[in-house]
């Protein structure tokens, strides 16, 4: 079943020059890019995006981080795209959870600065796509 997911390359991924590397892995897996945009997230979009984490100890730092520089926002499509992208990205903690061969496992060291985001369910994907790409 074809599915859509919202992918972000976070500010650390952009500033470290990893856009090409990350896009390459999306395409190599066989997933399709159906929208792609470099932009600065507003505080409002960032807060909407991470609403589920409001109140957690890392929430303020997370909003500061995600608005600290440009991000790449993308809609990625394919069979089981949500799980497929999370497989490529690797677990949230790049050392304890992400395995070598994943984006986080290969290129990241810290849980906050873990390079990429992917929607975690069809409901999250629909909400996040509407937030980042209204009308898409
Ligand atoms: P994401 O939403 O960014 O795809 O990552 P995820 O599902 O793997 O992780 P999630 O639990 O949704 O956390 C969202 C992002 O918040 C930062 N975080 N920091 N310092 C901490 O303990 C902590 N925990 C999470 C990470 O940037 C994580 O990706
Ligand atoms: Mg998440």
Write the layout of secondary structure elements.
Layout: E1 2-9, H1 11-15, H2 19-29, E2 32-39, H3 43-49, H4 59-66, E3 71-79, H5 81-89, H6 103-107, E4 116-118, H7 122-132
Antiparallel strand pairs: 1-3, 1-4, 2-3
This protein binds ribavirin triphosphate and magnesium ion.
The site of ribavirin triphosphate has 9 residues, from strand 4.
Radius of gyration: 14 Å
Structural class: alpha+beta
Low-confidence stretches: none
Fold-level CATH name: Alpha-Beta Plaits
The strand count comes to 4
CATH superfamily: Nucleoside diphosphate kinase-like domain
Shape from CA axes? globular
Across the major sheet, the strand order is 2-3-1-4
Order of helices and strands: EHHEHHEHHEH
How many distinct helices? 7
How does the major sheet shape up?
4 strands, antiparallel
CATH C-level class is: Alpha Beta
Number of domains: 1
Distance between the termini: 19 Å
What ligands does this structure carry?
Answer: ribavirin triphosphate, magnesium ion
In percent, how helical is the residue content?
40-55%
pLDDT average, as an integer?
A: 98
Subcellular location: Cytoplasm
Organism: Gordonia defluvii
Function: Major role in the synthesis of nucleoside triphosphates other than ATP. The ATP gamma phosphate is transferred to the NDP beta phosphate via a ping-pong mechanism, using a phosphorylated active-site intermediate.
EC number: 2.7.4.6
């Amino acid at each position: 079943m074809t599915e859509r997911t919202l992918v972000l390359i976070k500010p650390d991924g952009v500033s470290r020059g990893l856009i090409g590397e990350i896009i390459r892995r999306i395409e190599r897996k066989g997933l399709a890019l159906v929208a792609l945009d470099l932009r600065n997230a507003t505080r409002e979009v960032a807060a909407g995006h991470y609403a589920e984490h409001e109140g957690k100890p890392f929430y303020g730092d997370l909003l500061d981080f995600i608005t600290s520089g440009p991000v790449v926002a993308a809609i990625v499509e394919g069979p089981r795209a949500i799980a497929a992208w999370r497989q490529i990205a690797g677990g949230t903690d790049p050392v304890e959870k992400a395995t070598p061969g994943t984006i986080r496992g290969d290129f990241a060291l810290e849980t906050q600065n873990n390079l990429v985001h992917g929607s975690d369910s069809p409901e999250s994907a629909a909400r996040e796509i509407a937030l980042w790409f209204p009308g898409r």
